[in-house]
């Protein structure tokens, strides 16, 4: 699809001598994969397989917590309306749903507010602050935004409003003059884990608030929302995030809220089969479609829906919006590729007035996959353009964008994903600068895709006990990928293109007495051979429990592709 030829992916072995360091009481492949990820003691393995044993860190270690608790208690006691301002993605929406439900249980009066992506853009804005003040709010709590909102918080203060920021985005050099900026990424923060999603930060804030009032925040009632936001926002599933998601998924399966159950049904699965993949590929895109195509309030309404009937109606609306989003994405990607042609810049930047602001982040991500380099996609408006950026490899996209802040109206984000607004007259200059930054930092080898492999194993080695051990790595996602294996000299028994455009490949592979079905996404045009080397994970379809291989890459065995060895 791209104009530039794609290099052959590198295969990298995560830890060269993991097979020698594995715990002897575990099945060989399972033990090797655990050792590759640094799990070489019984205690570490116990914590890994039982995520609920992970320590929950003290929320009072988060900077700014004490003044935030005092001010929130005052507002609750005085019945002073509390404005809840969130981002329009799933992390922001789940944060606002969580805050509204938990604060109102304490007797708080809340005013939830989610901005309109197309009219207001990302983050706090002066118009929204004015509206919330006019509605009577004296306390403003922002979730999943606010760390960079210096002018907007100053405006709130000028109107007599106190502001509390609950966020996890990269911290700029100047913080807003809020009553409290609660962000685990703040420099000097004693909180031992920096990778909470915003909904995780909100949950820790609520835990501390309940405790300060002599009450306990009931995990069973709220942890499903935290798990949903954490997974869909692609927060790393390690440390307390993994514990949160494991517990939240359990509660979700046992007693799903009406909105989650309805959306799971629309996505083609039942609530009792929900896993992290269901959240990431089934529920997340439909919830995000609200903010991308219409307004995020629809997603919030679903999560707050009181009855199955009300939830079903909203879930059906979100499904329609998601299909519209899919069509816009395909059209936008074709537009981007046509504009780019055979461009081989180390960073891809493309946009036009025909791009849809709701899907530019998705298109940027697809370009990263297709071209193996960082990407920025923008919608060009009459005077300004709104852009979304995604990174590749170790390139810090938000740092690169911040370097050009003198050209930007506003900006923010994570190391791997960011957004900004820029005046159109600065577009060419910005592109020249950031492409030069990428050229300085990225060598040609850095633009070569790679697959990190946990262990090399024969398909015939995957006995029932090995399979059970490998599938118990759940919950899996960013930061805790499903185990990745390499099997060489596998017989390819069948291969056929699937998908509307034939871009995927359904496979059957065999080694000895073992025959496995497999799916290779976006590899419909890959070179086939009777004997292949495959890199894969064991996967259950997110709609059900059928086991198959998710083939991440493959090559003819005759190629004998080398395996780079990383760690010793």
Describe this structure in words.
Helix content is 39%, strand content 21%. It has helices at 18-21, 28-36, 42-49, 65-77, 90-105, 126-134, 150-158, 198-212, 219-232, 239-254, 258-266, 276-293, 297-304, 308-340, 360-371, 397-402, 427-441, 464-471; strands at 10-15, 82-86, 110-113, 139-143, 162-166, 180-182, 348-352, 375-380, 384-390, 408-413, 417-423, 450-453, 455-456, 485-498, 504-511, 514-520, 531-540, 547-556, 563-567. The protein has a 5-stranded parallel sheet, sandwiched between helices. Strands 7-8-9-11-10 form a 5-stranded mixed sheet, sandwiched between helices. Strands 14-15-16-18-17 form a 5-stranded mixed beta barrel. It is globular. It starts with 9 loop residues before the first strand and ends with a strand.
Q: Main sheet, how many strands, which sense, barrel?
A: 5 strands, parallel
Strand content: 15-25%
User: Which spans of ≥5 residues are poorly predicted at pLDDT below 50?
Assistant: none
Q: In DSSP terms, counting alpha (H) and pi (I) runs of 4 or more, how many helices?
A: 18
In which order are the strands of the major sheet placed? Answer: 3-2-4-5-6
Helix/strand structural class: alpha/beta
The outline comes out as globular
User: Helical content, roughly?
Assistant: 25-40%
Q: What is the end-to-end distance?
A: 38 Å
**Integer average pLDDT:** 93
Number of strands: 19
Radius of gyration: 24 Å
